[in-house]
Design goal:
The chain is an all-alpha fold and about 80 residues long. The protein has one domain.
C-alpha cells in the first residue's frame, strides 16, 4: 500500500468513526460497530472491511442515510 493510500484510509477511518459517533452512545460502541457489525445493505461486511476494500464512501453514505432516517436510534 502506498503512503498516500494509507493516509487516505486513515482519514476515511476517522471520518467514519466521527459520523458513527453521532449514532452510538459511547466510543466503545462505535469501535465495536466499526470492527464487528456486518452492514447488511453493503454485503454483510464490517465498516473496517469495507474501508480496506476501498469502499469507505459507501460506509459514509450508509451512515448519513441512517442519520437522516432515524437520528435518535442506536444500532
Amino acid at each position: 500500500m502506498s503512503a498516500s493510500l494509507a493516509w487516505v484510509d486513515t482519514v476515511i477511518d476517522q471520518d467514519i468513526l466521527t459520523v458513527a459517533g453521532l449514532l452510538e452512545s459511547s466510543p466503545q460502541a462505535v469501535m465495536d460497530w466499526y470492527y464487528g457489525v456486518p452492514i447488511r445493505p453493503l454485503g454483510d461486511e464490517t465498516a473496517a472491511d469495507l474501508v480496506r476494500q476501498g469502499r469507505g464512501a459507501a460506509v459514509m453514505a450508509f451512515l448519513w442515510a441512517a442519520i437522516e432516517i432515524e437520528p435518535n436510534t442506536n444500532w
